[in-house]
């Protein structure tokens, strides 16, 4: 339905179905992150930040996190 205010119910076979119109969406993942790579950023030998790359062991999504100042020019 076009004007349905969806109310998604239980997860079945990897999808959630609207209890009102039956629309299916891919169920959201409760991510479980595993560390793939970690790098320390340096500016003339002084650590200025870190870059952390992680991957979800359930859905395979990859995320990158920058911590601290990663560019010494500003």
Describe the structure.
This protein is mainly β and about 70 residues long. It has a domain at about 30-74. The chain is built from no helices and six strands. It has strands at about 10, 15-20, 25, 35-45, 45-55, 60-70. The radius of gyration is 20 Å and the shape is elongated. The chain starts with 7 loop residues before the first strand and ends in a 6-residue tail after the last strand. The model has no long low-confidence stretch (mean pLDDT about 85).
Contiguous helical run count: 0
Shape label = elongated
Low-confidence stretches: none
As a percent range, the share of helical residues equals under 10%
What's the structural blueprint in terms of helices and strands?
Blueprint: E1 8-12, E2 15-18, E3 24-26, E4 33-43, E5 46-56, E6 62-68
Antiparallel strand pairs: 1-2, 2-3, 4-5, 5-6
Summarize this entry quickly.
0% of the residues lie in helices and 55% in strands. By secondary structure, the chain is an all-beta fold.
List the main descriptive attributes of the protein structure presented here.
74 residues; mainly beta; 3-stranded antiparallel sheet; 6 strands; 55% strand
